[in-house]
Specification:
InterPro entries: T2SS_GspF_dom. 87% of the residues lie in helices and 0% in strands. It contains six helices and no strands.
């Protein structure tokens, strides 16, 4: 969408291009927004309704920035560019958080399932030898 707006398409044209090229729930939501705009609803109202319907924090932030840019007359392409950078940073932070939690989640199976099997394999022959030596 950013590329389309920077290439000279209007916001509505970029939305239409996005709808035609991408499939999924978000595409259907943007299609609904575009339909509402064409039926006479203001862009601000249509986008706010989409934000309310979806309830996704990243999408709400994007829509808030788009509405503010529309009200202040700021270029939409700049807003889209900044928002895309921020969303990538948030996604990276969430991935890092999940990566930090992974060792804690792996600790239980490691201690109770993997370590005992390793101990049996490593210490089993030694225990058998000790039993044979003391058994005689």
């Amino acid at each position: 969408m950013t590329v389309s707006v920077e290439a000279g398409l209007s916001f509505d044209g970029a939305l239409e291009r996005l709808i035609n090229n991408i499939e999924g729930i978000l595409s259907h939501e943007f299609s609904r927004v575009l339909s509402e705009i064409r039926m006479g609803k203001s862009r601000k109202e249509a986008l706010k309704d989409m934000s309310t319907r979806c309830g996704v924090s990243d999408l709400t932030a994007l829509i808030g920035a788009l509405i503010q840019a529309d009200e202040l007359g700021v270029g939409v392409s700049n807003v889209l560019r900044v928002q895309s950078v921020q969303m990538r940073q948030k996604r990276r932070q969430r991935a890092q958080e999940k990566a930090m939690k992974a060792p804690v989640k792996m600790l239980f199976p490691l201690i109770f399932f993997i370590f005992p099997a390793i101990f049996v394999v490593l210490l089993g022959p030694a225990v058998i030898k000790i039993i044979e030596i003391f058994g005689k």
